[in-house]
Specification:
Blueprint: H1 6-20, H2 33-47, H3 68-78, H4 91-107, E1 114-118, H5 121-135, E2 140-144, H6 150-157, E3 162-165, H7 175-182, E4 187-193, H8 205-215, E5 218-222, H9 238-245, E6 252-255, E7 268-272, H10 308-320, H11 328-348, E8 353-355, E9 365-370, H12 375-391, E10 397-402, E11 418-425, H13 431-452
Parallel strand pairs: 2-3, 2-4, 4-5, 5-6
Antiparallel strand pairs: 1-7, 6-7, 8-9, 9-11, 10-11
Helix pairs in contact: 1-3, 3-10, 4-10, 5-6, 11-13, 12-13
The structure holds pyridoxal-5'-phosphate (PLP).
Length: 455
């Protein structure tokens, strides 16, 4: 592990925080330091049973370490443990949440909006679809077959119909299939994914907005994973760039600071373009709103208690790394993207692999299959390679994807067949500098696997 700046940051900041409350009479905490130290030793050992998510050689799932400033600010806030439900419980941290969320909305070009943090992208999407259902009661929700699996489930919870629209060979929502659904006249909301979870596909938002002119529906953008790529349009290819350029025209947007925003888990965000949707949240909880006449975040959120520490960590991170094009945060995203393009380039030049036939990745997620027949053998080789990489401390992921995404239609029976692929989410800035070492390990792993298979 790299040396950790957090303990030193925290010592100084904790002193200052204690001074803020120095006028209060002292009291002793009834917590036994020796017993706690022993338990933490055991805890540290137990936590060793994890993949090294913090390390550049962890390049598997969507796991990005929180920034040290986020960890320090989170831990600092924990000595107060504020609750951002209401200002009583989280006075300072509610202000910081409002500021931090304004920063995110600003990234999408929304000076006016309604929005707040949530405990996750799932809850943020739930809120967006709940509002969608209030605006258009009884109408259907549709999303691409590559949309996050929770949309279907959320719709069921909300008792709204949900239909999946087929994805094209790039994993993007098919416009023809969408229009066919729209002709039924009962679609209330289209969920448009910018950065689909499996492969990072970007739905053609600009073209979907053109259909909105004709058919009239709400557009909810699920950018839980991909939202921050709004900051690096020049690093994207044309169709994705056009989709991101149009994001401000959506009715609602979800982005997860705990995915690409360098935050600890427990930090999603939902934004509505029309602040008047706040009317749907009206409720009259009798016991939470005594000390302030200002709007409480609890009045515009489906959740009640929420971690004020999440808002504090996010605010601190955005102070250090503002969400602006050309800033350090944006550069970090671009580095992961460039690592993904380089990995894709190497895979395409190597006959042992078969990357996505439609072209390079749209964001920073790379998927590829092993070049072997039949598909079942390619799947087995992918699993063995995954394991052989892990032995070499390189952690990738596996994903099941349509075969036709790798082998252009060679017969109709291909349509529904799937194949197990390798997947790498290159979301750390360090992945760019480490790509050579990642490739060496992948190369060595696959060499061993193929030798074992007598190829
Ligand atoms: C991760 C993800 C979600 C779910 O967010 P959680 O924070 O894991 O609940 C929803 N949509 C997309 C596109 C995602 O990538």
């Amino acid at each position: 592990m790299p040396s950790d700046p957090v303990p030193a940051l925290l010592t100084r900041a904790t002193e200052l925080l204690q001074q803020e409350f120095a006028s209060l009479p002292d009291f002793e905490l009834s917590a036994d330091p020796v017993a706690m130290a022993q338990i933490l030793e055991v805890t540290a050992q137990k936590l060793g049973d994890n993949y090294p998510y913090f390390h550049p050689l962890y390049a598997g799932q969507m796991l990005k370490p929180p920034h040290p400033v986020a960890r320090a600010a989170y831990a600092l806030a924990m000595s107060l443990n504020p609750n951002n439900h209401a200002r009583d419980g989280g006075r300072a941290s509610s202000e910081l949440e409002i500021e931090a969320v304004r920063g995110i909305a600003g990234m999408f070009g929304w000076p006016e909006f309604l929005g707040h943090l949530t405990s996750s992208g799932t809850i943020a999407n739930l809120e967006a679809l709940w509002v969608a259902g209030q605006v258009a009661p009884g109408k259907r929700i549709v999303g691409s077959a590559q949309a996050h699996y929770t949309h279907n489930r959320i719709s069921a919870v909300l008792k709204l119909g949900y239909s999946a629209i087929p994805a094209d060979h790039r994993g993007r929502m098919s416009l023809e299939a969408l229009e066919a659904e729209l002709r039924h006249g009962d679609v209330g909301t289209v969920v448009v994914t910018l950065g689909a979870t499996a492969i990072g596909a970007v739905d053609p938002l600009d073209q979907i907005l053109a259909l909105r002119e004709r058919y009239g529906f709400r557009v909810h953008v699920d950018a839980a994973y991909g939202g921050y790529f709004k900051l690096i349009p020049d690093a994207l290819d044309e169709p994705a760039r056009r989709a991101y350029a149009a994001v401000g025209q959506a009715d609602s947007i979800v982005v997860d600071p705990h995915k690409h925003g360098l935050q600890p888990y427990g930090c999603g965000c939902v934004l509505f373009r029309d602040p008047s949707v706040g009317r749907f949240y009206k409720h009259d909880s009798p016991y939470t709103y005594f000390t302030s006449k200002q709007l409480h975040l609890g009045e515009i959120s489906l959740e009640c208690s929420r971690a004020g520490a999440s808002a504090v960590a996010l605010w601190a991170t955005q102070q250090l790394l503002p969400l602006i094009p050309g800033g350090e945060f944006a550069r970090g995203l671009a580095q992961g993207r460039s690592a993904a393009l380089e990995l894709d380039r190497r895979l395409r030049a190597d006959s042992r692999f078969q990357p996505f036939c439609a072209g390079p990745p749209e964001l920073d997620i790379v998927v590829w299959k092993l070049n072997a027949e039949p598909p079942r053998r390619a799947s087995e080789l992918a699993k063995s390679t995954f394991e052989a990489c892990a032995v070499r401390d390189l952690h990738l992921a596996l994903v099941e994807l349509p075969l036709e995404w790798f082998q252009p239609a060679a017969g109709s029976e291909r349509g529904t067949a799937t194949v197990t692929c390798l997947r790498s989410v290159l979301m750390k800035p360090e992945h760019e500098a480490w790509l050579g070492r990642i490739w060496e390990r992948l190369d060595s792993a696959v060499t061993e696997v193929l030798k074992g298979q007598g190829k």
